[in-house]
What we know:
Blueprint: H1 3-14, H2 20-27, H3 36-61, E1 69-73, E2 84-94, E3 98-110, E4 121-124, E5 135-138, E6 142-151, E7 158-166, E8 168-173, E9 178-182, E10 185-189, E11 195-200, E12 206-209
Antiparallel strand pairs: 1-2, 2-3, 3-4, 3-5, 4-6, 5-6, 6-7, 6-8, 7-10, 8-9, 10-11, 11-12
Helix pairs in contact: 1-2
Amino acid sequence: MKKLCLAAMVATVLVGCNAGDEVVEHGGIDINNMSQADLQGYADVTADAVTVVARAAQDCATGLAVGNTNQCDIPEIQGNIDIAVAKGSVKVERQQNEIIIHTPTAMQFTTHNAITNGEVITLSFNSTTDDDYIMTMNDYGQIMFKGMLINTAESNAKYWSTEAKAPFTYKYDANTVHPYLTKGNGVITGKDNQHFNWFADDEGHISVSR
C-alpha cells in the first residue's frame, strides 16, 4: 500500500471513524516473516504496555462510586517494566463489578526492547478507533482488552493490535513495585490478519506461539 493511502487511513483513525482493524490489516507488522525472537520482543513490549495502563486504571478507579467516572494521567512506574511513559491518560467508569477503561490520550512510551529500538510507541484503548477497542477490569483484577499499538517514529509506521482471548489477571506487589500480568492468553495481529498468540504464566513470564 502506498504511503499516502496508509497515511489517510491513519488520519481516519485519529479522528475516530472506526477504522482500527482496517489500518492493522493493511499496514500492520509482517508476522509471517518474523523470527521467534521477534515474536517474543513484540509480546514483551505489548505485555509491558498493557500492564502500565492496567496499573494507571486501577489507581484512577480507587474509591470511585458506581456510575461515576474519573480521568487520570498515566504515570511513570517502576519495577520490571521496560517502558518510559511520555504521556497519556486513562478514563475509567465504575460499574457494579468492574471498571471500563479507555485512553482519551493514547499512551506514548519508549522502550529498550530490541524490536522497537527505543522508538516512540503508542498504545490506545479507544472506542472511537473501533467499538471494541477498550479494556475492562473486574474486582478480582481480571482484565480483558483490545488495543492498537503504533510505532510512530519510523518513516513506514508499524501497527499491531492485541486482544485478550482469556482473562489476564493484573497483580501488583507494592513491596517490590512489581506490576505484572498472569494466567491469561492473548493474540497479536498484523497485516493480512497474520497473528500469533502470547501467554502469561502464574509468575508473569511471557511466552509466545504461532
